[in-house]
Amino acid sequence: MTPSPITNHQRISRKLEFILEKFITENKLGELFDAPYDVYFDNENVVQPDLLFISKDRLHIIGKKNVQGAPDLVIEIISENSAYRDMVQKKKLYAKFGVKEYWIVIPEGEEIEIYTLKDTAYQLYKSYGKGTVLESSLLKGLTLALMDIF
Fold first, then answer.
1. Is it true that domain 7-148 has CATH number 3.90.1570.10?
2. Domain ranges across the chain
3. Are strands 30-34 and 39-42 parallel, antiparallel or unpaired?
4. pTM, 2 dp
5. Kind of pairing between the strands at 73-77 and 101-106
6. Residue 54 and residue 30 in contact, taking contact as beta carbons nearer than 8 Å
7. Residues 54, 148: Cα–Cα separation, whole Å
8. 107-113 long-range contacts, Cβ below 8 Å, gap at least 24?
9. What are 24-39's pLDDT values in tens digits?
């Protein structure tokens, strides 16, 4: 059995969710979900991202039990047991199935990397470090100070 996320992981997840939920709700952009919640790509590819966003134009992919298709945004918070899976395997999988923006949150370095989908692969949009303010290419107008997360 995979161990549950550690305390710092949960704190970071809660803070991100609070800020994103407020922004998404105030701007009527769509819906935000947190783990555990299945994203079903196909019979062999089902994942549970830490956080995921689905835009209002694509709410039809939300089913009674899970999400059927690619969210617009997926956020993974790196844990000591998940680094390779999140930074390599899931990154390829999310690109393959068309997730438009992928955030990798790195608690140890207090940084967030944002990747945007170009054709069928991700390109680094920007890497944000301690003391900087994150801006999403997908969620226009969102500003997120990293000191409020870490």
1. yes
2. 7-148
3. unpaired
4. 0.94
5. parallel
6. yes
7. 24
8. 107/8, 107/9, 107/12, 107/77, 107/78, 107/150, 108/78, 110/146, 110/150, 111/146, 112/146, 112/149
9. 999 999 999 999 999 9
